[in-house]
Amino acid sequence: MRKSDKRRSSSLLGDSARVPLKVLTTAVALAVLATTGPATADGPGRAPVAESHEPGVDPTPERPPTSEVSWLSFPGGVFAVDSLGHTVRYRACDGDTGRVADPTMRVAAGVASGAVVVGGTAYRYRVPLVGRSEGTLEVIQRHRPPTTLTGVVVTSPQPPTNPVAGARLFPLSGQLARVVADASLNPAGATVRDLSGRYGDQQIAVNGSLRPKAASVIKLWILVELLRRVDCGQVVLDDGVLVTPEDVVGGTGQLQFETFPQVVTLHRLAQYLIKYSDNVAANVLITYLGGFAPVNALIDSMNQRSTILARRMLDSAAAQRGEENYTSPDDVVSLLGAVWDGEILTPASRDLMIGFMREQTLNTKIPAALPPGVPVAHKTGDLPDASHDVGYYLIPGTETAVAFLTAGPMATGDETVRRMARTVYDFLVPPVEGAVEE
Question: Which DSSP category does 4 fall into?
């Protein structure tokens, strides 16, 4: 099933919330505002200073920018390309090649092409390095007809579908930059992507490559890997997992208060993982999925270079050894955008994930900053030295993916997150003059 054929509405989001059908484009508006400096193992890159642009000014460059990393989304899998490192990765329902070197990869005119052979299977590819383009992958096995896969190319960020409309989102960069600058105790970053088309699907970021500890935001990748396997028909959410007393840890969550051993369904583990940010559920699912490697393979296949799952929840010994989970605002929005657009999960799994995020019970950040009743689906993350909230604003006609991440003291980080969350909301839904908020 091609992306263009996928259902774009969700019963969980309500009749008025929608995902518009994307149109292909090879143009992007002032990419310097939509991207941030490269993340490194030692810390974040520097973000460019955002500038304001007048609405109606066409910022389309002469030629579309390209990305050194992109991945091809096709039904049941992805094919990732790193044109700078000359590596590729095929990961789908029928297997995972891991990262494979292709020293003969050809990169010309914004397209990476080549062929690799892994385990007797050949993968011949032509993948544009411009997001929203269409790429092809031919899978050739002995004694079988070749399989040709086509799909949408995903980059981080994706180019806007309408650069003129996207330019209207740029002033938000300056507003967020002021909030970030005011947070003297908390290095902070924010990435925002329009999902509604109102701003041409534009993405903006301030310190989008900031790389703090991921805290419980990493649970989103655990959930996506589980739901990907559901989509592949490899697991069923009604399946049960034996949870033992040895699995019980403290912190956030509800399972720790139950009696064990008992069998818990994958559906309840997945729901509690997000709804209560359940640490027991997270650790049980990590074990069920096969450890850290499968989740990190998911991350690698989407070329999310700042994110890693390296320890279980509340594993203080691992943390003391320097084994830590990390992410960035850009990587979070890369994941949220891929989920929303149906590029990594089926519509049914996408709806289920967003439904769990709508049930989130830890609501002291994004929801607390917005007027009562504003629909959001989100996931928090808290550590003594990190405070995050990420997710979706589900305002009908203005659906938006957001990631607000901070390092430093949690208490002041909470307030910084709330300020960033309200700044985005006020930009999307300007206050009505004379209105009194209850």
Answer: G
- Report the pLDDT averaged over residues 146-171: 97
Q: Where are the alpha helices (DSSP H) in 56-110?
A: none
The H or E element containing residue 154 is strand 147-154
- Cβ–Cβ < 8 Å for 381, 389: yes
3-state secondary structure of 256: helix
Provide the strand spans (E) within 60-120.
Answer: 69-74, 77-82, 87-92, 95-96, 100-101, 106-108, 111-118
Q: What is the token pair recorded at 95?
A: 């297997």
The pLDDT value recorded for residue 6 is 37
Computed from CA positions of residues 327, 329, 335, 336, in that sequence, does the dihedral angle turn out positive or negative?
positive
Q: Is residue 71 a contact partner of residue 154, using CB atoms and an 8 Å limit?
A: yes
Taking the alpha carbons at both ends of the chain, their separation in whole angstroms is 46
Give yes or no for residue 34 having a pLDDT over 70: no
CA distance 176 to 207: 10
Give whole-number Cα distances, 137 to 35, 151, 161, in Å.
27, 9, 24
pTM of the model: 0.86
273 close to 286: Cβ distance less than 8 angstroms: no
Q: What percent of the chain has pLDDT over 90?
A: 82
Burial class (CB in 10 A: 0-12, 13-18, 19+), 118: middle
Spatial distance between the Cα atoms of 396 and 276, rounded to a whole number of angstroms: 26
E strands present in 280-428: 376-383, 386-393, 400-407
Output the pLDDT for position 66. 75
Which is higher by pLDDT, 148 or 51?
A: 148
Q: Write out the two tokens for 97.
A: 């090649």
Q: Is the pLDDT reported for residue 349 higher than 60? A: yes
Dig out the tokens for 352 from the structure. 């289920």
Cα 316 to Cα 313: distance, rounded to the nearest angstrom? 8
Kindly report, residue by residue over 250-262, the tens digit of the pLDDT. 999 999 999 999 9
For position 40, what pLDDT does the model report?
A: 26
